[in-house]
């Protein structure tokens, strides 16, 4: 009996010693690699949180200034400054006046001869403006610019016909964009530039400053005499303007503008000059629903009322004196 009790107690003692000797792990805040201990400690910043219950009206100005300096807050200013960028002007300055009968009247006529003399007198200002443009663009040439302007003109109208708004903004200023897009919603436009009847040429140039003398804008008017095709369809596919078969001769004076002071400025369409002597535009063929005729009863009642009114008027007329 005693031997069995000793045997059991020895077994328990043996198990206890084994459990103590076995390795075990505990949770610790120490990293296994203490190499970057300093950097890990710098990741945590102590921030002084503001007192939200504090009334700013009760704080003296010196204490408020000290708190603002600690937080890096700039003092409030008595005025408001909002930065704005002027990428285009709001109109055409000193617009070109096209000579009457341009593209139709002969150069031998007296009216055209007088207009030619007047244009020569105004040409000096255009030459000075072109010289100003050359001070910003050394490689500027009026003849080469006319070809570039024609390419911009074609791409702008093609992007309008495709309905590509992002591409249209590249060739049109902010002033001309709503004028291009006006009344083009839910319409299909087919436009083609066939050929030039006369080569495009620069007829007018002006430069002006906006806000400051260093902020200069340039405007150049180019004359286009070309043959084009235009057809506009409504949302139901009905032709409302123009034709895809018939081509027309188009004479246009297009104003191109550029922000000369901006290094990344580009020439874009700004406006179109329509002379007073130009013929009126052809109205669009719009289709409207014909109203339903009124019922027959209302028509008869209206006739009866008209008869009664006529009888009353005849009875109330004064008698004419006999001669």
Key phrases:
single chain; 323 residues; alpha+beta; 4-stranded antiparallel sheet; 4 strands; extended; disordered C terminus
Give the distance, in angstroms, between the N- and C-terminal Cα atoms.
172 Å
Q: What is the tally of beta strands? A: 4
Structural class from helices and strands?
alpha+beta
Low-confidence regions: 15-19, 318-323
Order of helical and strand elements = HHHHHHHEEEEH
- Output mean pLDDT: 81
Total DSSP helices = 8
Report strand order across the widest sheet: 1-2-3-4
Percent range for helical residues?
25-40%
Radius of gyration: 43 Å
Beta-strand share of residues? 15-25%
Shape: extended
The profile of the biggest β sheet is: 4 strands, antiparallel
Question: What topology emerges from the helices and strands here?
Answer:
Elements: H1 2-21, H2 37-42, H3 61-71, H4 110-136, H5 142-162, H6 165-171, H7 177-181, E1 188-209, E2 216-233, E3 239-259, E4 268-273, H8 296-316
How would you briefly describe this protein structure?
By secondary structure, this protein is of the alpha+beta class. Helices cover 37% and strands 21% of the residues. It is built from 8 helices and 4 strands; from the N terminus they run H-H-H-H-H-H-H-E-E-E-E-H.
3D architecture notes:
This protein has 323 residues and is α+β, with helices and mostly antiparallel strands. 37% of the residues lie in helices and 21% in strands. The chain has eight helices and four strands. It has helices spanning 2-21, 37-42, 61-71, 110-136, 142-162, 165-171, 177-181, 296-316; strands at 188-209, 216-233, 239-259, 268-273. Strands 1-2-3-4 form a four-stranded antiparallel β-sheet. Helix 5 runs antiparallel to helix 6 (165-171). The radius of gyration is 43 Å and the shape is extended.
């Amino acid at each position: 009996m005693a031997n069995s009790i000793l045997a059991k107690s020895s077994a328990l003692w043996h198990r206890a010693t084994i459990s103590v000797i076995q390795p075990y792990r505990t949770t610790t805040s120490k990293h296994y690699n203490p190499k970057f201990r300093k950097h890990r400690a710098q990741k945590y910043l102590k921030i002084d949180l503001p007192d939200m219950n504090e009334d700013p009206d009760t704080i003296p100005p010196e204490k408020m200034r000290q708190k603002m300096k600690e937080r890096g807050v700039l003092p409030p200013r008595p005025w408001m400054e909002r930065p704005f960028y002027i990428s285009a002007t709001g109109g055409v300055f000193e617009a070109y006046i096209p000579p009457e009968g341009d593209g139709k009247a002969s150069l031998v006529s007296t009216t055209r001869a007088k207009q030619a003399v007047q244009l020569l007198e105004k040409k000096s200002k255009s030459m000075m403006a072109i010289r100003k443009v050359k001070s910003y663009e050394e490689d500027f040439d009026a003849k080469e610019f006319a070809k570039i302007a024609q390419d911009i003109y074609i791409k702008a109208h093609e992007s309008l016909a495709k309905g590509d708004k992002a591409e249209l903004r590249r060739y049109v200023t902010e002033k001309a964009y709503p004028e291009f897009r006006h009344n083009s919603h839910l319409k299909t436009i087919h436009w083609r530039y066939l050929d030039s009847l006369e080569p495009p040429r620069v007829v007018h140039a002006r430069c002006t400053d906006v806000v400051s003398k260093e902020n200069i804008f340039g405007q150049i008017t180019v004359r286009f005499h070309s043959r084009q095709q235009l057809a506009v369809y409504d949302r139901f596919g009905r032709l409302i303007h123009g034709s895809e078969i018939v081509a027309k001769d188009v004479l246009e004076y297009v104003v191109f503008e550029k922000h000369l002071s901006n290094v990344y400025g580009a020439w874009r369409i700004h406006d179109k000059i329509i002379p007073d002597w130009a013929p009126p535009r052809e109205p669009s063929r719009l289709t409207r629903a014909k109203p339903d005729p009124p019922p027959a009863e209302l028509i008869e009642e209206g006739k009866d009322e008209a008869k009664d009114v006529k009888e009353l008027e005849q009875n109330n007329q004064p008698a004419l004196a006999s001669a």
